Amino acid sequence: EAKNLLPYLGPNKMRDCFCTINLDQEEVYRTQVVEKSLSPFFSEEFYFEIPRTFQYLSFYVYDKNVLQRDLRIGKVAIKKEDLCNHSGKETWFSLQPVDSNSEVQGKVHLELKLNELITENGTVCQQLVVHIKACHGLPLINGQSCDPYATVSLVGPSRNDQKKTKVKKKTSNPQFNEIFYFEIDLWNNGNLVQDVFLGEIKVPVNVLRNDTSYQAWYLLQPRDNGNKSSKTDDLGSLRLNICYTEDYVLPSEYYGPLKTLLLKSPDVQPISASAAYILGEICRDKNDAVLPLVRLLLHHNKLVPFVTAVAELDLKDTQDANTIFRGNSLATRCLDEMMKIVGGHYLKVTLKSTLDEICESSKSCEIDPIKLKEGDNVENNKENLRYYVDKLFSTIVRSSMSCPTVMCDIFYSLRQMATQRFPNDPHVQYSAVSSFVFLRFFAVAVVSPHTFHLRPHHPDAQTIRTLTLISKTIQTLGSWGSLSKSKSSFKETFMCEFFKMFQEEGYIIAVKKFLDEISSTETKESSGTSEPVHLKEGEMNKRAQGRTRIGKKNFKKRWFCLTSRELTYHKQPGKDAIYTIPVKNILAVEKLEESSFNRKNMFQVIHTEKPLYVQANNCVEANEWIDILCRVSRCNQNRLSSFHPSAYLNGNWLCCQETSENTPGCKPCTAGVPADIQIDIDEDREIERIYSLFTLSLLKLQKMEEACGTIAVYQGPQKEPDDYSNFVIEDSVTTFKTIQQIKSILEKLDEPHEKYRKKRSSSAKYGSKENPIGKTSE
């Protein structure tokens, strides 16, 4: 959220604001527009992999302008090196002004040499030779690559000589390769009104020695005399919660012992002595441990027995059947995460069409007399709300055939355990399942559709209110149908009155039938083979196939849609497909070099016909499309082993200059991705994250080890010493042995990590492209 933004001058002071997330200046995401506010509350979450190097993670706050270009109110730029300091914390940042100085980025490669020359009259003079080789990562101007050139100045006490390179068109990585003499600043020639400053560096000539060549990469800097605003606080501030992780993943063979120990967890007796459970115990935030654990165990079909075992431990401490699985334990968090990972497609086929209808209509569903607007008819609103609730409820209770098998398997185990724990309660077999599938899955997805990728943005205030009322009703229907009729969870009188519409035997029967079906071990007909799985969609630029001429008209915006069966593109969402590529025909998916069409973020889908050249909107989106296309096609027959990294234009391949269009590729294809297309899991990466979490929690692991020793030695009456009262230790001997194994494995893994860190720091020589002069040391 933002607050105290600078108001408009004049009577209408409010602004229509949105915020963008940028890697340096490249926009990767934007929020929806919040209208007429100087303190907009965006409440949006974005998760993405970072596919390239970057200097800053930046956030720009814009004022939406319908007739003119959107106005940048201010920005927050966080250095890559500082992201870890802010990770996991909510922080208010002051907005900084946006000008040419604040937008400086990129680096320049220089070679300098000082020569001695003998003049015509026989005297010796010195000559400075400056070779401007290249620049890399220059800023985008209005979202586009610029037309950069460089000037070189020798600044002396009595004169200032200046030279200028040729302009390089439409690139942020220009190759100049021109030799001059002097000091450097960079300008963009793409603006017809006035050239835009892109950055400068200054190199003192006294570092040079005669006949010695000196070359290095430099980070571009703002102007020395840049005018910095002294009233930056007046622009307002932005509240962010950033979670940033950076892991160095080693080759697979290093992770074997840790993987084996973790995968043995479901078989350890008691489960609290297993490595996976211990990780959940010692992590400061259990959620940090849950994601990599669930993904790893899911990948190896070990999640069901593990969750069953930890859920059984939860049930031992549950005294009241009405509170079953209501806490935030390791078991419930693992189940929540599992449902998010495997249940995405299930939610789409079940909820999306109705949620789209709700979000795109403007029907009022407010039934709280206090919140009714002038002119609202509460009876009409009740009918609107009932229509949506009935439509969603009906879809949910008829969706059991689409419920993922792994969810059904876990629900079956929960149901059996709950019945054994409370044998005299006939309703607990249903409430054990409904507390997850209704309370923690469907109800949450209804109230936050953007979080589950069912909607692109956080809904507006009126829609949020409608979704909240629907969610509360669906949640209560699920739990009410699985308990006795006398139970009611509503505190508000208006909700109690509304819910009377649903207190019919038919709803209870429908809920119980649905819960029976999704917690059964009976084999279901697979819905996955008859219906293609929707994987990804979005608008991108496509180059017309078969064209040989470079031109803007060759690229057109198209709506792309990928399922488990085919890749299609359409003129608009919902229109018939213009072109279809069956997934089985995809031979390779690879990046396309920028030089092919002077366009960034391009990739190619190589199939049995001509390659399809596509330009994504940013590097994150390009990486996501390449990744998912590789996954869905990785088992195809006849996949290529080599490809052309550039396009075939004007009768030859730009990369290798071969003239035949059928010439085999000149570069090896990227290795296939070893992961499931629906459950995107790289096990080495997950184990590396677990290693990092164990390492960060080493002190707590040692305390747990000491607590095991204390329990094993102590022979007195039972008590709860401070040093182990916070840990679940059922069997101190087995737990102690597991901790010893964990520590031994961590020590062995520390060695290759330390070697890699040393190698990385020594290889990145100061002044190299990876570690340019002017970079803040990490």
From TrEMBL:
Residues 285-479 form the Ras-GAP domain. SUPFAM superfamilies: C2 domain (Calcium/lipid-binding domain, CaLB), GTPase activation domain, GAP, PH domain-like. Pfam families: BTK, C2, PH, RasGAP. Residues 522-547, 753-778 are annotated as: Disordered. Residues 533-542 have a biased composition (Basic and acidic residues). GO terms for molecular function: GTPase activator activity; phospholipid binding; zinc ion binding. The keyword Repeat applies. InterPro entries: C2_dom, C2_domain_sf, PH-like_dom_sf, PH_domain, Ras_GTPase, RASA2_PH, RasGAP_CS, RasGAP_dom. The keyword Zinc-finger applies. Residues 1-93, 104-233 form the C2 domain. Transmembrane segments: none annotated. The gene is RASA2. GO terms for biological process: intracellular signal transduction; negative regulation of Ras protein signal transduction. Keywords: GTPase activation, Metal-binding, Repeat, Zinc, Zinc-finger. Residues 533-634 form the PH domain. This is Ras GTPase-activating protein 2.
